[in-house]
């Protein structure tokens, strides 16, 4: 191939990666560890609300973001996607020369791992752009360094997270589940919700038991049994999220009144996740939640969804 003079190498083409949001169908939280993190039994399920992260050639690291709530996304080096690019560059001994762009669809600061998804997406996109050839094990290791939920964003599907949530075992899922996510105005800080969890346990004079996955819930996932999944959904962070944001109680009540099989706070909140019997019930529920005034917006989504993937060139 002939290369035009003055351009020693052809410029690599931009790489776009699609990444899913998640819901925690079980979030069992143990006592705080010496390092401040909490031991978890965290059953993650990826849902098909997805962000896209594009890595384009650039002289240095820049970050931009578009879509609903984009104005709430920090665009400095504190952004987890920017940290992911910098981490990969440092590990592989290359310059972090990339323009990252995030196309947001996952609710921002909603407890749906949007930031973690963008970090996993940035890692995969930069690895492809720079040709750094990171192995799956190296990518997972970098994901865990970036945050407790980031490895799951890479893997997708369904998985049990142990440790602080980063030690994953993939789980079988035997059917499609239909969800509605009610999003609130403003975020909830994950560390603040965990601190409130500790405070509530202390106030009650109780040491949280060691977290264990629910056998009934794992069976419901494996069988694709929506009724049993609705009965076994559980989030130990929910009382803490409700304590910090009592209005979420009204959102949960509105979803149940509108026909949800079950509802719970998603992760550390403030989004609330509702399980619906089928696609039609989910559409009706989303409509009713929007009309109720108990949330800012409602999104339908199905699960499971695949993890981070490079999209073919468009
Ligand atoms: O791992 P990540 O950076 O996403 O965690 C954000 C915060 O959430 C931590 O700093 C900690 O306060 C809290 N956390 C926790 N236990 C976990 C995961 C997160 O206490 N297993």
Low-pLDDT segments: none
Q: Gyration radius, to the nearest Å? A: 20 Å
Largest sheet: 8 strands, mixed
Strand-pairing-aware structural class? alpha+beta
- Tally the beta strands: 12
Mean pLDDT: 95
* Basic shape: globular
Order of helices and strands: EEEHEHHHEEEHHHEHHEEHEE
**Helix proportion:** 25-40%
Strand content: 25-35%
- What is the overall number of helices? 10
Q: Which small-molecule species are bound to the chains here?
A: cytidine-5'-monophosphate
Gap between N and C termini: 23 Å
Q: What labels describe this entry?
A:
four-stranded antiparallel β-sheet, 34% helix, eight-stranded mixed β-sheet, 314 residues, alpha+beta, 12 strands, binds cytidine-5'-monophosphate
Question: How would you describe this structure to a colleague?
Answer:
This protein has 314 residues and is α+β, with helices and mostly antiparallel strands. Strands 1, 2, 3, 4, 5, 6, 8 and 12 form an eight-stranded mixed beta sheet that branches. It has a four-stranded antiparallel beta sheet with strand order 9-10-7-11, sandwiched between helices. Strand 9 and strand 10 form a beta hairpin. Helix 1 packs parallel to helix 2, helix 2 crosses helix 3 and helix 5 packs across helix 8. The chain is globular, with a radius of gyration of 20 Å. Bound molecules: cytidine-5'-monophosphate. The site of cytidine-5'-monophosphate has 11 residues, from strand 2 and helix 5.
């Amino acid at each position: 191939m002939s290369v035009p003079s003055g351009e020693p190498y052809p410029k690599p083409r931009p790489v776009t990666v699609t990444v899913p949001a998640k819901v925690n169908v079980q979030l069992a939280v143990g006592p705080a560890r010496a390092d401040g993190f909490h031991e978890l039994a965290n059953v993650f399920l990826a849902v098909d609300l997805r962000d896209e992260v594009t890595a384009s050639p650039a002289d240095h690291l820049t970050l931009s973001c578009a879509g609903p709530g984009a104005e709430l996304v920090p665009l400095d080096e504190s952004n987890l996607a920017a940290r992911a690019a910098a981490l990969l560059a440092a590990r592989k001994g290359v310059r972090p020369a990339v323009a990252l762009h995030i196309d947001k669809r996952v609710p921002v600061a909603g407890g749906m791992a949007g930031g973690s998804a963008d970090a996993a997406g940035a890692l995969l996109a930069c690895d492809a752009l720079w040709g750094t050839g990171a192995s799956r094990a190296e990518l997972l290791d970098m994901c865990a360094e970036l945050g407790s939920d980031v490895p799951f964003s890479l893997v997708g599907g369904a998985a049990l997270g142990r440790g602080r949530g980063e030690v994953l075992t993939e789980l079988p899922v035997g059917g499609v589940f239909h969800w509605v996510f009610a999003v609130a105005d403003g975020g909830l800080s994950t560390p603040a919700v965990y601190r409130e969890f500790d405070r509530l346990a202390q106030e009650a004079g109780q040491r949280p038991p060691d977290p264990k996955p629910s056998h009934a819930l794992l069976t419901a996932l494996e069988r694709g049994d929506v009724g049993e999944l609705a009965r076994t959904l559980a989030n130990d962070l929910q009382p803490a999220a409700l304590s910090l944001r009592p209005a979420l109680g009204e959102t949960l009540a509105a979803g149940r009144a509108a026909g949800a099989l079950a509802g719970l706070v998603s992760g550390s909140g403030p989004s609330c996740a509702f399980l619906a019997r089928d696609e039609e019930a989910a559409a009706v529920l989303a409509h009713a939640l929007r009309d109720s005034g108990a949330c800012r917006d409602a999104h339908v989504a199905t699960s499971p969804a695949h993890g981070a993937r490079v999209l073919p060139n468009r």
